[in-house]
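Model the whole thing, not chain by chain.
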Amino acid sequence: DAGVTQSPTHLIKTRGQQVTLRCSPKSGHDTVSWYQQALGQGPQFIFQYYEEEERQRGNFPDRFSGHQFPNYSSELNVNALLLGDSALYLCASSITPDTGELFFGEGSRLTVL
Amino acid sequence: AQTVTQSQPEMSVQEAETVTLSCTYDTSESDYYLFWYKQPPSRQMILVIRQEAYKQQNATENRFSVNFQKAAKSFSLKISDSQLGDAAMYFCASDNYGQNFVFGPGTRLSVLP
């Protein structure tokens, strides 16, 4: 039973560029959430996708956008990268939006130079 | 808005001893979930223990147990018989049934041989 998988594991971008991060949820899960974790801090909620729609969103600018596909996998896109976007981006899946238990991937480490 | 506070940025414990990590939270909801997640250096967040607010009995998972004080909005984690593999960042989190999953800033636990 595959858990949550994310790609790429590491990437380096320069300011102003765009990045796409990908996530496949745990088998049987239909809900995907994205979190940003700055170094030494707790994860901050970006948004949650369910039934291919953004169900709720945290306090992040419109430069952060996402998508969920019919197979429940998801992408996180960040445009016009800033130095402050450097972080570990975590994807988490759950059985439904309301179960309250998240299963996490290993994350994608983004460095913006 | 929900908030989660962990007042101990770092803790250390001797192997085989017991340690307690503190967490307080603030929510206006009467029903919610509380969690402790562990993040080892490998980065993947792992669920340690979960508590449903309507249950008065404290949750236990092997060497891990919680002291849930709903009126005081306190949710501490006790690790008994500490092992070297317990060394990690520990995050307390609250969730209003998928509406607002919020993490605390974390406590770094070191286990001394």
